[in-house]
Every structure is written in C-alpha cells, then in structure tokens.
C-alpha cells in the first residue's frame, strides 16, 4: 500500500508539472526544454528555505514562485525571439546554464552533495509526515492546477495562445500583443513547474542537481507528447504512462543500474513510437 | 480624400527592386484593383501596408496616420484587414473560433473574461457567409472555397475601414466567385475602402471602380478601370502585345 501511495504522490507531482508544460508546449506550440530548471528552482527554494532559514513551506513555495516568475519574465522574451528548433535549442541552453548554477553555486546549493533534511509541510501545527497525508496535499495542488488551467484555457486568452501556435503573425495582425502574451504564458507555465519542484523536495526530503538536468526536461517533454498535446487530461495520462510503466521493471529483478538505463531506453522508445504512429499523443488535439 | 497614400516606398530583395520609389493614392470607399505581372510588387506592397514586411524606405498614410514601416521604425497597429494569396487560417481551431479571435477585445485583462455576445456575433457572421453548419468543425476540414470564404468572414468581423484582398478569387468555382463578389460589394456599400489584387481582367472590370497597374515595382497607370485598361503601356506590360 505504501508503495502505491508513493507512486500516486510522484504521479501527482509530475502531473502538475506536465500540465503547466502543456500550456506552453501543446497549447502555444513552443518546444521548451527549460522546465527542469524551474522545477529545480522550486525544489531549491524549499530546501534552502527549510534547512537554512527555517521558513514555512508555503512561504518558501511563494518565494520560489516569485523567483521563477521574475526569471521567466527575463528569459521568456529572450526565448520568444526564436522560433521552432531554434527555440528548443535556446531553451535547452537556458536549462544548461541554470543547472550549472545549481551544481556550482556550492555556498548556496551545496553542489553535488545536495541538500538533505528538508522538512515536510505543516499547516496549523499539523505536519504532513505520513505519505498518505502528503498524497492528499499533492492531490489538492493537482486539483487546483487542473482547475486553474482549465479555467484559463476556456477564456479568450486560451484561444489567443492557440492562435499564436497556429500563426503568430496573423494573430498579431488582429491587434494582439503576441510577445507579451507569450511571456505571460511562459511565466504561468514556469510557476507550475516550480510548485511541482517544491512538492518533490518536500516529499523526498533530499535534493541534488541531477534531478534538474537536461535529461529531466526531455522526460517532461515525453510526458506531454505521449499523453497528448493541448489536452490537460493527456498530460496526466502521459505522466501515468512514464511513471507507472517503468516501475514494472523493478519486478523483473534487474540490477538497479541496469533498470535505470532501461527506463531511459523506455522513454526514448516511447517517444519514437508515438511520433511514428500517433504524433499528437494519446489524447492530443494537435501534432507538433 | 484618400484612404491610403503611399509615398516613395522602396523594397529590395537580393538587390532586385520589388518596390521602386513607389508613390500611389487610394480613394475612400472605392474598390481599387491592383494588377500587374507576377513579381511586379503587388503582394509586397500589401505585405508592407499590413506590417508583414518592412520597407527599406518610404512611408504610407492610412486614414491620416502617417506610418514609416521600414526596418528602422515599426509602424503602430492600424485599422486594416486582409486576406492572403495562400489562405492563412488557424487550421487547428474551429471555424467559429477563427471568427471569435478577430472579435475579442485585445487588452490582457479583457482576455480573461468570456463575453458570450462575441460568440453570438461570430455565429451571425458565419450565417452571412453560409458557414454556420461548419461552425464547430476545424478550419482545416473546410474545402478550398470555404477557406476563402472564412477569410472574408474574418474581414467582415474586423469591421476595418481599409481592406486588402490578395487574389481572393483564385482557384474558385464560378458559383463561389459570385458569392465572393456579393460579399465584396456589400463591404463597399458599407463604405469600406478595398484594394484587390487580381489577375483575372474580366473580374477586375466587373468589380473594381479603379485600377492601379504595377510593373517592376513602379506604377505605370492609375485610373478608372476602363480608361487604365485601354492604355498602351498597360496592354504591353500586363496583357502583352
């Protein structure tokens, strides 16, 4: 039972991230490979806030969201200058820079040693110490994320970001400030990654930079693409596929390093097969 | 009174003059045909006016707002609407949403509120162009003629005083051409200024009040349709000897 709860927590956390990523990747059509960095900002803010400054989880999460929001305000317009493959490469470069900061700013992040002893969240004196209670907290965040994004996407704003995906020049000719809208969408998307990162750090109580490198961004990308571009339920489905199915490898009795490599092969293979046979993903409405 | 005045507009592509110090005037409330051989600069001119392309030098005035759409200074948004030689719809959005997107208020905060009157207005526009049955279909699923009509629907929705139509009749069946002519004439009756790029001279004679003939980025004639089309320069440059 405890194992199933663990899977459900991981699933909830990554679903929050993949829904946020779908906003920019599926709905707005920009292939961002930088979200592992925003995931890392959330995790490090919680970790540093808890272990150094003994800040409450929610305040630390808020600070993380503000930091990510400000960073996205700077990075968003820069990335917005690029299109298609160039956008992907520039966003990858951003991830590499931020990963280097996590790795090398040792005074703050302890570099490769990581930060242990991160507290679980607390509310009105109640600590989410058991995994079951932590799962309920994650499900609350998951529900809020889904509700907020669904609401946002049902407004004219949702329509405009789809129009930008289809033809930005034409959308702009109708009088929309597309650069501003792209930046705002990037900020919203980054903030959801930060929330997911904060929850992960608090759950596993230890973080190190390896969780936020380029490979993670590819992993997140695979979740959105396999589940379905421009569909929030698709993000949850894609996350489920990529979190649950590789877990089956555990039961094959393989050595852990072999199982880890097999998982990577599984992600890659899943992406290739999906691009070949169902490029819009399981529930997607749009092909890249 | 002119709706659009072009002053010494120049645009070069790889050293070739697409527009060569071009100056033109387009009258209010008239349909002006913009004709000329391929590569004469018609679409380049429309692309510059509608901010899809930057001029190398020169200026143009739309409804008394002078704009310098050059590489150095970007023109502010203006009240115009256009169609494209190769139809540019939002293919993965519904037919209705292709109209709604034009009607929406453009301010950020207003984009966060749903206004159901806009959907109703968009539905009425689809009725006017006969596409109400396809309202919930993806634009990509429309036939070629329907796609051209949907572009006209976006023009109707924008309610802009200046309309730029880039070969709207190209590739259409006769029945669809008649439908489109009806919509263009309706726009004219509503006081719109229309600039229409067209190769079919019979259609130009039927639809346009005036024509401007371009050749190698220069204007070689600009007059009432029948007068301009009878000029020897025009016959030589455009229709051949």
Description:
- The complex is a heterodimer of chains A (288) and B (241).
- By secondary structure, chain A is mostly helical.
- Chain A has helices at 2-27, 35-51, 57-80, 84-104, 106-109, 131-153, 156-173, 178-204, 214-227, 232-247, 256-277, and strands spanning 122-123, 126-127.
- Chain A has a two-stranded antiparallel sheet.
- In chain A, a hairpin with a 2-residue loop joins strand 1 (122-123) and strand 2 (126-127).
- By secondary structure, chain B is α/β, with parallel strands linked by helices.
- Chain B is built from 8 helices and 10 strands.
- A 6-stranded mixed beta sheet of chain B has the order 6-7-8-3-9-10, sandwiched between helices. A 4-stranded antiparallel beta sheet of chain B has the order 2-1-4-5, with helices on one face.
- In chain B, a hairpin with a 2-residue loop joins strand 9 and strand 10.
- Chain B is globular and about 55 Å long.
- The A-B interface holds A 152, 154-157, 159-160, 162-163, 165-167, 169-177, 180-181, 184, 285-286 and B 50-52, 77, 82, 88-93, 97, 100-102, 104-106, 108, 110-115, 118, 158.
In short:
Chain A is mainly α. Helix content of chain A is 74%, strand content 1%.
Secondary-structure map:
The complex is a heterodimer of chains A (288) and B (241).
Chain A lengths: L1 H26 L7 H17 L5 H24 L3 H21 L1 H4 L12 E2 L2 E2 L3 H23 L2 H18 L4 H27 L9 H14 L4 H16 L8 H22 L11
Antiparallel strand pairs in A: 1-2
Helix pairs in contact in A: 1-6, 1-8, 1-9, 1-10, 2-3, 2-4, 2-8, 3-8, 6-8, 7-8, 9-10, 9-11
Chain B lengths: L1 E12 L2 E12 L3 E5 L6 H8 L7 E6 L2 E3 L12 E3 L12 H9 L12 H13 L15 H15 L3 E5 L7 H16 L3 E5 L3 H7 L2 E6 L2 E7 H5 L2 H8 L2
Parallel strand pairs in B: 3-8, 3-9, 6-7, 7-8
Antiparallel strand pairs in B: 1-2, 1-4, 4-5, 9-10
């Amino acid at each position: 039972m405890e194992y199933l709860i663990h899977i459900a927590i991981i699933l909830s956390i990554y679903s929050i991230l993949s829904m946020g990523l779908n906003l920019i990747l599926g709905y707005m059509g920009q292939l961002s490979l930088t979200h592992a960095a925003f995931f890392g900002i959330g995790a490090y803010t919680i970790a540093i806030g808890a272990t150094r400054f003994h800040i409450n989880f929610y305040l630390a999460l808020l600070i993380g969201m503000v930091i990510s929001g400000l960073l996205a305000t700077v990075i968003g317009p820069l990335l917005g200058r690029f299109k298609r493959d160039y956008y992907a490469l520039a966003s990858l470069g951003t991830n590499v820079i931020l990963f280097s900061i996590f790795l090398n700013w040792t005074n703050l992040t302890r570099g490769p040693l990581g930060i242990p002893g991160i507290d679980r969240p607390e509310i009105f004196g109640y600590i989410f110490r058991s995994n079951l209670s932590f799962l309920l907290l994650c499900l609350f965040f998951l529900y809020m994320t889904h509700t907020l994004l669904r609401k946002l996407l049902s407004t004219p704003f949702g329509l405009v970001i789809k129009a930008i995906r289809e033809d930005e020049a034409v959308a702009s000719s109708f009088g929309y400030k597309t650069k501003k809208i792209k930046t705002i969408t990037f900020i919203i998307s980054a903030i959801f990654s930060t929330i997911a990162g904060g929850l992960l750090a608090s759950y596993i109580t230890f973080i190190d930079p390896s969780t936020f490198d380029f490979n993670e961004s590819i992993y997140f990308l695979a979740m959105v693409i396999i589940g379905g571009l421009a569909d929030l339920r698709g993000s949850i489905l894609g996350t489920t596929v990529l979190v649950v199915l590789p877990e089956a490898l555990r039961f094959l009795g393989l050595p852990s390093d072999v199982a880890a490599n097999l998982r990577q092969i599984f992600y890659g293979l899943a992406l290739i097969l999906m691009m070949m046979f169902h490029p819009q993903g399981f529930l997607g409405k749009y092909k890249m | 009174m002119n709706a659009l005045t072009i002053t010494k507009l120049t645009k070069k592509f790889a050293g070739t003059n697409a527009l060569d110090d071009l100056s033109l005037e387009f009258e209010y409330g008239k349909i002006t045909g913009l004709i000329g051989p391929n590569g004469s600069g018609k679409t380049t001119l429309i692309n510059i006016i509608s901010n899809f392309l930057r001029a190398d030098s020169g200026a143009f005035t739309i409804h008394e707002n002078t704009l310098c759409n050059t590489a150095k200074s970007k023109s502010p948004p203006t009240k115009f609407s256009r169609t494209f030689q190769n139809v540019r719809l939002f293919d993965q959005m519904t037919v209705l949403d292709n109209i709604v997107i034009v009607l929406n208020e453009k301010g950020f905060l207003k984009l966060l509120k749903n206004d159901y009157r806009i959907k109703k207005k968009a539905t009425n526009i689809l009725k006017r162009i006969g596409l109400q049955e396809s309202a919930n279909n993806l634009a990509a699923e429309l036939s070629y003629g329907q796609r051209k009509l949907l572009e006209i629907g976006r023009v109707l929705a924008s309610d802009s005083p200046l309309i730029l139509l880039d070969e709207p009749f190209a590739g259409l069946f006769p029945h669809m051409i008649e439908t489109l002519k009806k919509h263009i004439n309706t726009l004219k009756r509503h006081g719109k200024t229309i600039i229409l790029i067209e190769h079919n001279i019979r259609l130009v004679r039927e639809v346009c009040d005036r024509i401007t003939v371009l050749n190698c980025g220069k204007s070689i004639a600009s007059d009432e349709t029948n007068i301009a089309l009878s000029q020897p320069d025009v016959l030589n440059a455009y229709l051949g000897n």
